[in-house]
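Case study 2.
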Amino acid sequence: SILRDKPELRDVFEGFRFYKNVLAYNSATLMATPGLYGGYDYVPSSMNKKSTIPLKDKHNEALLLMPRILTEQAGFDAIMTDSSWGNYKNPSDMTFIESYDKIKTDRLYIKYSDYTEKMLGLPVLTESLENAIIRNLLWMSLFRETPVVLREVIYYRGTYFNPNAVNDSDKFFDWYAGLYCLPVLTDFNALENSFIMITNETTHQEFDSKSLDIIDTNNLSYPNSMHYKENVISLETIGSWFELMKENQVYDNTRIIIVSDHGIGQGELAKDGYDIPYLKDFSKDFLHPLLLYKDFSATGEIQTDMTFMTTADVPTLVLDGIVENPVNPFTGNSVDSKAKSAGVYVTTDTGLWSPENSKSEYIFTVPDDSWYHVKDNIFIDSNWTQEVPQ
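Prediction:
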């Protein structure tokens, strides 16, 4: 749909493959990202089998898998930004990476907001922030006087029950600035091969970005979807980075993967392609992420590929042809995609979006009836079977 609305992106995304038949493991980042970062050793069912290791430690292992393999087994340099739930903190605490000398970390979130506002000639986005501070000072006082067991209820994901918090332009822009500044942050003088793992949540914010007038969002196929606009904006902004790569002759010798940890699960597109789009009242689209892949020296117009993929295939895509028989440095297991040959287990549970929501320090405590076995083609309902992993 985005390519139809913005046909100029077909040239920008030259050589890419769009994996449409792709599956995520949960609708929340906490359970969805470990497999994306770490492969099949770290999908929810696999993490639950390692029931003596704390979830936080397993999550950190997943974040480190690709950079460790590439720096230790292939001589790469590596940098990670804003990694999801690092040390089970949000924003991410990446101090657990400090002992790995060849793996650097950075934060793009918030860091370049002022610069981007000035470059785009936008008014400083302070009004919503000021209002939030005035309101939240009162709530913070109440929070401090409340027994610890009730504080999470009052805090409520940092919003203090503010219905406008998720529509705050500041948070959208603080993430968007990280994408906008990628060309400014990039040089072409590296002496070693580089692995760059960027986490960005621009598309996660429910904010009508049209008010910022960043790009032309008129005449879109889904004008009422804030998420759709944010996806258009994100892909156009990343496309500017690709154009810079092409100008500096590094686009062809760069492997690029764009992937989300889960889908949106709402709006007109949530039903697209499915014979039955819902599991009871759960939208399958929550488990339908974006996966775009460009290999070294790939050319031609972007292609759609219906191969069955999951987000846990990302490490295999990254390492293919670079590391022969890659091995997980934490488990000793091979890093490959063989585990999906007979299908995979996903969970539709929506309660574990934060570590504090889990009843266990070691496993994901999800109801048995939330587990589904999925195989071959996510759009065919008979390929979804309610089944608890053994």
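Confidence is low (pLDDT under 50) at residues 163-167.
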